[in-house]
């Protein structure tokens, strides 16, 4: 099979045998993917891997994003999934793998978004875009209850060392949850929905 690219299209010629044993040349055309959300299978001709990381805007306006001091990191230390955040924004430390305590605080904030009934049952009953998903509710709630020492509306009470003793994978789980729910956490933070999850200058007042 031979191929070439013309005006954004990848065309190929595929030689195959016709009904009477003669070679038949078929023209195959593959248009470049226009939708960034749609994935092309690796086996598809013209497939390419985009290494550009996803970007989360944490500025004051949805239309503004300061590209100065962008940090790219891999939350789990493996795979291609990366998160870019602005280093001049206070909340960037919530997802910073070097500051697990703030990831622990993020898990507590997500738990406080659960309703009382959801907290009791450790599950998600209301799909309101707040708190944990149905899949994460059991483990997220159990982890948060340990971190806040059983106080449904309380703040983080356990230390990093205590978490590591309680669950050797607890820090990694906190980081995963904080990263997965980053958009929700940014909204909670920006809208001041949680008095225990405020910018440092306002939380101390």
Structure summarized in a few sentences:
This protein is an alpha+beta fold and 205 residues long. It has helices at 100-112, 116-121, 137-147, 160-166, 170-180, 182-190, 200-203, and strands at 2-6, 9-17, 23-31, 54-55, 70-73, 83-86. A 3-stranded antiparallel beta sheet has the order 1-2-3, with no helix packed on it. A 3-stranded mixed beta sheet has the order 4-6-5, with no helix packed on it.
Taking pLDDT < 50 over at least 5 consecutive residues as the criterion, the unreliable ranges are 4-15, 26-38, 44-89
**What is the domain total for the residues?**
2
The proportion of strand residues reads 15-25%
Structural class: alpha+beta
Please, what is the oligomeric state?
single chain
- Total DSSP helices: 7
Query: What is the terminal-to-terminal distance?
Result: 70 Å
Strand order of the largest sheet: 1-2-3
- SSE order: EEEEEEHHHHHHH
Calculate the mean pLDDT score and round it: 68
| Apparent shape | globular
Radius of gyration: 24 Å
| Tally of DSSP β-strands | 6
Give a short account of the largest sheet: 3 strands, antiparallel
Percent of residues in helices comes to 25-40%
What does it look like?
With 205 residues, the chain is α+β, with helices and mostly antiparallel strands. It folds into 2 domains: 1-47, no CATH class; 90-203, no CATH class. 30% of the residues lie in helices and 16% in strands. The chain has helices spanning 100-112, 116-121, 137-147, 160-166, 170-180, 182-190, 200-203; strands at 2-6, 9-17, 23-31, 54-55, 70-73, 83-86. The strands form 2 sheets. It has a 3-stranded antiparallel β-sheet, with no helix packed on it. Strands 4-6-5 form a 3-stranded mixed β-sheet, with no helix packed on it. Helix 1 crosses helix 3 (137-147) and helix 1 (100-112) packs across helix 5 (170-180). It is globular and about 35 Å long. The N and C termini lie far apart (70 Å). The model is unreliable at 4-15, 26-38 and 44-89 (pLDDT under 50).
């Amino acid at each position: 099979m031979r191929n070439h690219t013309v005006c954004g299209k990848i065309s190929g010629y595929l030689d195959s045998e016709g009904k009477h044993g003669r070679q038949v040349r078929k023209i195959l055309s593959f248009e470049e993917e226009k939708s960034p959300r749609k994935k092309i299978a690796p086996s598809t001709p013209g497939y390419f891997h985009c290494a550009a990381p996803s970007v989360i805007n944490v500025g004051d306006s949805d239309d503004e994003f300061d590209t100065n001091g962008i940090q790219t990191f891999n939350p789990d230390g493996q795979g291609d999934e990366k998160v870019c955040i602005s280093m001049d924004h206070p909340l960037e430390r919530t997802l910073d793998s070097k500051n697990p305590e703030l990831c622990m605080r993020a898990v507590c904030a997500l738990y406080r978004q659960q309703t009382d009934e959801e907290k009791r049952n450790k599950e998600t009953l209301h799909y309101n875009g707040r708190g944990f998903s149905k899949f994460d509710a059991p483990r997220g709630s159990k982890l948060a209850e340990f971190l806040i020492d059983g106080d449904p509306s309380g703040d983080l009470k356990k230390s990093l060392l205590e978490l590591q003793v309680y669950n050797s994978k607890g820090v990694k789980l906190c980081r995963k949850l904080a990263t997965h729910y980053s958009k929700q956490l940014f909204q909670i933070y920006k809208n001041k929905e949680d008095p225990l999850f405020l910018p440092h200058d306002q939380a101390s007042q």
